[in-house]
Design brief:
alpha/beta; 19% strand; two-stranded parallel ribbon; Rossmann fold; 12 helices
Length: 321
């Protein structure tokens, strides 16, 4: 059994990670501050399955409360740090808020780990750190020095804080760069969820750009498998930070995304076109060589199947709202 402190436990990814860890017999201490970015009731619903497990305890607190987090940690705890202000476009409107949560919050967690003697950390980073000038497929050793949004900059800054301090604090850190995660419980502001909702309600959807912008979409089950593998890797990894890509192994253009969603719903889309959105990269594409070699990571859910699963989940939950 592993004792895991999971920040952002009520979120889309965090709640799925909690359930997987609990299912294999781990003890999970979940933290979340219920940031109002989207309604609290959504996160409360995300947590229902985990709360039903005897191996789960939950604390509502902010990661900037270093002392409170320190009291929850023991030297054998693995910290899985997924708490963050998310979203590229909102970060353009509130850079200071993103800096506080994503950078200062990460430093607060590092301080708590140092004081508690914690040596194992898994950090949820983002493919957005690669910016628009990294040649595809993106390798973990790419410089990643030109982020094009405050959100991306804060994720890269958090990586650098962990890397700079890992040898001094004695941390084995797996920094996981997630590539456009989707699936049940996906945040309502993200494209797949938003498109499915609007088409289901008979509303038009907005296509930003010419439809050629492409993403390496990754189904939630595959991301969770990568996170759990990283938790295990921290048992024997070096005192340092290692970066791993977690992607879906297929780059999908926006136009194809709309086609797949429309087919899964059985609805002909009405599309309104507009220009590219500020802060959005043109392409993401993960090189999975390292994550497969070191973590044994291999995505298993093809994109069309993942979309069908999301639509089935959406219809079931939407029918009960």
């Amino acid at each position: 059994m592993t004792r895991v402190c999971l920040t952002g436990a009520g979120g889309f990814i965090g709640s799925h990670v909690a359930e997987r860890l609990l299912a294999r017999g781990d003890e999970v201490v979940g933290l979340d501050n219920f940031d109002p970015f989207y309604p609290r009731r959504i996160k409360e619903r995300n947590l229902e399955a985990a709360r039903a497990s005897r191996g789960f305890q939950f604390h509502e607190l902010d990661i900037l409360d270093t002392a409170a987090i320190r009291r929850l940690l023991t030297a054998d705890t693995v910290v899985v740090h997924l708490a963050a202000k998310a979203g590229v476009r909102p970060s353009l409107e509130d850079p200071a808020g993103y800096l506080r949560a994503n950078v200062t919050g990460t430093q607060s967690l590092i301080d708590a780990c140092r004081d508690a003697g914690v040596s194992r950390v898994v950090f949820g980073s983002s493919s957005s750190v690669y910016g628009d000038d990294t040649p595809p497929p993106f390798r973990e050793d790419a410089p990643a020095v030109h982020p094009i949004s405050p959100y991306a900059a804060t994720k890269r800054a958090a990586e650098l804080l962990l890397e700079a301090q890992a040898p001094h604090v004695g941390l084995r850190v797996a920094a996981l760069r997630f590539f456009t995660v989707y699936g049940p419980r996906q945040r309502p502001d993200l494209a797949i969820h938003r498109f499915v909702r609007r088409l289901s309600d008979g509303e038009p959807i907005t296509m930003f750009g010419d439809g050629s912008e492409a993403r390496d979409y990754t189904y939630i089950d595959d991301i969770v498998s990568g996170v759990v593998s990283a938790v295990d890797w921290t048992r024997t990894g070096p005192i340092d930070l290692e970066v791993f890509n977690l992607g879906g192994n297929e780059t999908v253009a926006l136009a194809r995304l709309i086609t797949e969603i429309s087919a899964a719903l059985g609805i002909e889309p009405r599309i309104e076109r507009t220009g590219r959105q500020a802060g959005d990269v043109r392409l993401t594409s993960a090189d999975l060589t390292k994550s497969h070699r070191v973590l044994g990571y291999r995505p298993t859910v093809p994109f069309p199947e993942g979309i069908r699963r999301f639509v089935a989940w959406f219809r079931e939950t939407h029918a009960h709202q």
